[in-house]
Amino acid sequence: MSGTLVLVRHGQSEWNLKNLFTGWKDPDLTELGVEEAKTGAEALKGTGLKFDIAFTSNLIRAQRTLDLIMQGIGQTGLEVIRDEALNERDYGDLAGLNKDDAREKWGEEQVHIWRRSYDVPPPGGESLKDTGARVWPYYMTEILPRVLRGETVLVAAHGNSLRSLVMILDGMSREEIVKLNLATGVPMVYKLNADSTVASKEVLGDMSKAH
Ligand SMILES: O=C(O)[C@@H](CO)OP(=O)(O)O
């Protein structure tokens, strides 16, 4: 066994609340989002994990979630690396549109394909495969080596940037990934083997509230 990797999606954002496609747009957390981050922090505190380093995106909702977690677990001095490789999937022309309006315009099925399929990009944006093509190399070069050295690493990022990572870690197929939704503020604790495969995964909260 080597180190520990914790992945957490940011708390609810203003645009999650308004039901808008967000992508690389940069809304802040809502009050509920702040509470979700604090709840995630409480759950992490209960594990007694002490982190060596944290990674986040260059978007405020993930950064604030990370700050709230670091405060909640009493590790405000933690080194933080921010990188746009961990940003949310670029939603292209859909960014800023209401998800229900989009369903009315293009149909429920098409919108679901854009949101959850593996390799169909939304117009002008990134598919999950495209997102993975920047998240995986970043994970392999910057994050995984630390975990393999035995470090405990925290990653606060986004629904789809983390789905692309979970797909690989959990060995999910293109069909299975369509059904995976990550809840906001719920930490996933992975223990990795020395060969970088997953030894165990524990979800600290309720993933079923994800949509
Ligand atoms: O709008 C977005 O950027 C994402 C995450 O909130 O939405 P979706 O659930 O469609 O992937």
What does this structure look like?
It is an enzyme of class 5 (isomerase). Substrate binds at residues 9-16, 22-23, 61, 88-91, 99, 115-116, 159-160. Its EC number is 5.4.2.11. It catalyses: (2R)-2-phosphoglycerate = (2R)-3-phosphoglycerate. The chain has 211 residues and is an alpha/beta fold. It is 41% helix and 14% strand. The chain has one domain: 3-Layer(aba) Sandwich (Rossmann fold). The chain is built from eight helices and six strands, in the order E-H-H-E-H-E-H-H-H-E-H-H-E-E. Strands 3-2-4-1-5-6 form a six-stranded mixed beta sheet. The radius of gyration is 16 Å and the shape is globular. The structure holds 2-phosphoglyceric acid. The site of 2-phosphoglyceric acid has 9 residues, from helix 7.
